């Protein structure tokens, strides 16, 4: 008997320590973020029930079960509300108030059982047991309703969050569509302006047919443009290419083709620089050949002038023209019947020439 009382006392000591800690947490939450006065009442009643349970000496087993059940309910509330800052609606507050009323009835019952005398406990043992069982059932029913209310409250909160997320998703989708349309409009505007600028800077060499074609390149068919050419402003002088550069470069062959794609400004400048370099090389070569031909003709003229001067001086000294000493002289062939020259000059003997004609040796 003494061992049983010792175990019961140890059970209540542990239970009281746990209930005191849980009730302090629930009371702090009730006064703080949740602001539910009835929740603080629940914590206070659970603490008093644990203290009164160890003073009851009749129907100890049923009383211990009731106290243990109350402590479990308090632990559930502590885990559900003690560590979460959640909003509580009016319906959930009402169910907490009903559960607090049942805990208050249990506290009054245990207070009456603890204050009875030995003969009263002996006479009312059966009725007290029925009251304890009934109180335990009512408390369990109230807690079940509170639990169901908590589930419904959580489902309502989740439904509200889901609706808000759907609205946010729809809003983000609309904003994304609007942004995509704006970006597409900006892209079209930039593309159109880029095409206009490129068409303005493109030379008009492909509208002019080539003046002549070499024997190695047959003439291309002329593609007549049936559509009128729109009036465009004059391109920039820095990007304008002359007709001579266009005819002398590869750009003319690329631009005059009706199936060619437009070139970039960098490629146009590269082709233009290549054509200008080719023109400069050909110009320098022609100038060099012209200078060499001029120098040769000047030398030939100086030699002829010197020969004529020497012949004239010899005639003045001797009093007669100089006669060719060679046995043979050169004679130019007459023209053919068709008007062309002969094969050139031929060498004939000097004695075959007609007498009385002097041949000057130049």
Describe the fold and architecture.
The protein has 362 residues and is mainly α. Among the domains are: 2-175, no CATH class; 239-295, no CATH class. The protein is built from 9 helices and 2 strands. A two-stranded antiparallel sheet has the order 1-2. The chain is rod-shaped and about 195 Å long. It starts with a helix and ends in a 13-residue tail after the last strand.
**Biggest sheet features:** 2 strands, antiparallel
- How far from one another are the termini? 168 Å
Please state the structural category: mainly alpha
Order of helices and strands: HHHHHHHHHEE
Helix percent reads 55-70%
Number of helices: 9
Proportion of beta-strand residues: under 5%
The Rg value, from CA coordinates, equals 63 Å
Note the topology.
Layout: H1 2-31, H2 37-53, H3 60-81, H4 90-114, H5 118-123, H6 125-201, H7 243-248, H8 250-255, H9 265-318, E1 328-332, E2 345-349
Antiparallel strand pairs: 1-2
Question: Any key phrases for this structure?
Answer:
disordered C terminus; mainly alpha; 3% strand; rod-shaped; 362 residues
């Amino acid at each position: 008997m003494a061992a049983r009382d010792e175990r019961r006392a140890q059970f209540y000591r542990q239970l009281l320590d746990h209930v005191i800690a849980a009730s302090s947490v629930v009371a702090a939450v009730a006064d703080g973020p949740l602001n539910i006065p009835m929740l603080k009442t629940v914590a206070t009643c659970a603490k008093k029930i644990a203290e009164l349970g160890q003073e009851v000496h009749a129907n100890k087993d049923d009383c211990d079960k009731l106290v243990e059940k109350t402590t479990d309910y308090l632990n559930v509330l502590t885990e559900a509300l003690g560590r979460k800052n959640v909003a509580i609606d009016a319906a959930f507050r009402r169910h907490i108030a009903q559960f607090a009323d049942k805990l208050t009835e249990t506290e009054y019952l245990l207070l009456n059982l603890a204050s009875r005398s030995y003969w009263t406990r002996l006479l009312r043992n059966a009725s007290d047991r029925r009251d304890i069982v009934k109180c335990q059932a009512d408390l369990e029913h109230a807690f079940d309703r509170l639990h169901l209310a908590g589930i419904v409250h959580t489902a309502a909160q989740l439904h509200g969050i889901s609706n808000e997320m759907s609205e946010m998703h729809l809003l983000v989708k609309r904003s994304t569509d609007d942004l995509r349309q704006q970006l597409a409009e900006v892209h079209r505007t930039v593309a159109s302006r880029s095409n206009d600028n490129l068409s303005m800077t493109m030379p008009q060499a492909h509208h002019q047919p080539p003046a002549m074609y070499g024997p190695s390149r047959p003439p291309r068919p002329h593609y007549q443009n049936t559509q009128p050419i729109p009036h465009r402003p004059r391109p920039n002088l820095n990007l304008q290419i002359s007709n001579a550069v266009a005819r002398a470069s590869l750009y003319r062959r690329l631009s005059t083709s009706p199936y060619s794609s437009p070139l970039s400004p960098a490629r146009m400048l590269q082709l233009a620089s290549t054509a200008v370099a080719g023109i400069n090389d050909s110009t320098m070569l022609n100038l060099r050949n012209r200078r060499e031909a001029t120098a040769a003709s000047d030398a030939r003229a100086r030699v002829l002038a010197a020969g004529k001067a020497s012949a004239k001086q010899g005639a003045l000294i001797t009093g007669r023209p100089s006669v060719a000493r060679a046995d043979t002289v050169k004679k130019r062939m007459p023209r053919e019947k068709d008007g062309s020259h002969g094969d050139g000059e031929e060498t004939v003997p000097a004695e075959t020439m007609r007498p009385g004609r002097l041949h000057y040796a130049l």
